[in-house]
Amino acid sequence: MDTTVWIILAVAVLVVVVVGLVLARRSRRGAGEVGPGDAQTGGEIPAFPPSTGEPADPGAIDGVVITHPHGAIQKPENVASRLVRLRARLARSGALGQALLAVLGRDHLDEAAWEELEETLLQADLGIDPTTRILTELRTRIRVDGTKDPAQVRSILRELLLAEVDPTMDRTLHTQRHVLGGSAEDPDSVVYFPATFLMVGVNGTGKTTTAGKLARLLVAEDKTVLLGAADTFRAAAADQLQTWGERVGVDVVRSDREGADPASVAHDAVLRGARDGVDVVIVDTAGRLQNKSGLMDELGKITRVVTKRAPVAESLLVLDATTGQNGLRQARVFAEVAQLTGIVLTKLDGSAKGGIVVAVQRELGIPVKLVGLGEGPDDLAPFDPETFVDALLG
């Protein structure tokens, strides 16, 4: 066979391969595959088949890399155990409680003592109005009851602080999957959409780390989780999130190029979660500065894209507990854009600034749902009002 015939055969084989790849790609797109530009154009999210809970093809979404965990997977600490440990840690750091009890333990509370109490509560970022309410009621109760017993005064103060923290607020993390369609007669036709969590907040609050810790917390509660690295402006953020995924054994959806559209990555992560049948998708967003209108608009875009099929289950604002009133200003701006459902307070290692819990809840009417009390992977736990107040008072 001469050289010309070999060349013709080689060209024919190449054409067959190229045509086959093109047809396969069109078939995948027709079945609901999403390209990197779909979320940017604001088009409708394509339909996808009912979730079976089986992992989808890692290459099913264009422009997105699905990183799978490998190596040794760490077993997260269960919720009950971490609550006991964190309660002890918070109690040991009760600087506010020590200051309050030093005053309340005196035989007589004169005006200087009351001024000292006021200063202590204000320095703890409790806020002017809550501080005024607490001290006014405390003085009234002491006068009416005629008590000078420090233990009784402490008990009254505990009651008043607990009322300010408001134990009646719903602090549940809503992890139930959203039912999109189908019928009871045909269970196989039911399509589930994962509960989507958006993590928002400014740089430096520990937002990406909190997203990883939250994934561990949910896995410890037997939830299946997928992480979405929508902070595409900082390559280290996606790498950091991937490391958390490897620790706990969950996949991470991230862009294959720096500076990709965050809304597109968030959209693809949620779609991937629906296809894989996971319970919760946690989307980490870039640190938005409240005075950067463009970045805040981007966060609004992420929210709009993600909610095309189902509402966001949780929009959690991550706040640094040590930032005080500046944290309140951040919260106000984010509440306007992200429709916040809860707050995560990080760096609450010392409870001297614990009054921010009261201040931010009163300001926004949004509950603190989680607190971080350390740098360890399991140093994140649900917020419990009674435990917190007891720790404040030592």
TrEMBL record:
Record GO cellular component, one term: plasma membrane
Membrane-topology annotation of the record: Peripheral membrane protein
Key words of the record: Cell membrane, Cytoplasm, GTP-binding, Hydrolase, Membrane, Nucleotide-binding, Receptor, Transmembrane, Transmembrane helix
One of the GO biological process terms: SRP-dependent cotranslational protein targeting to membrane
Transmembrane regions: 6-24
Binding-site residues, GTP: 201-208, 284-288, 346-349
InterPro entries: AAA+_ATPase, P-loop_NTPase, Signal_recog_particl_SRP54_hlx, SR_rcpt_FtsY, SRP/SRP_N, SRP54_GTPase_dom, SRP54_N_sf
Occurrences of domain SRP54-type proteins GTP-binding (ranges): 367-380
Enzymatic reactions: GTP + H2O = GDP + phosphate + H(+)
Top-level taxon of origin: Bacteria
Compartment(s) of residence: Cell membrane; Cytoplasm
Known EC number: 3.6.5.4
Signal peptide annotation: none
Single GO MF annotation: GTP binding
Region of interest (Disordered), residue spans: 30-54
Subunit relationships: Part of the signal recognition particle protein translocation system, which is composed of SRP and FtsY.
Family, as annotated: Belongs to the GTP-binding SRP family. FtsY subfamily.
Function: Involved in targeting and insertion of nascent membrane proteins into the cytoplasmic membrane. Acts as a receptor for the complex formed by the signal recognition particle (SRP) and the ribosome-nascent chain (RNC).
Protein name per the record: Signal recognition particle receptor FtsY
Species the sequence originates in: Salana multivorans
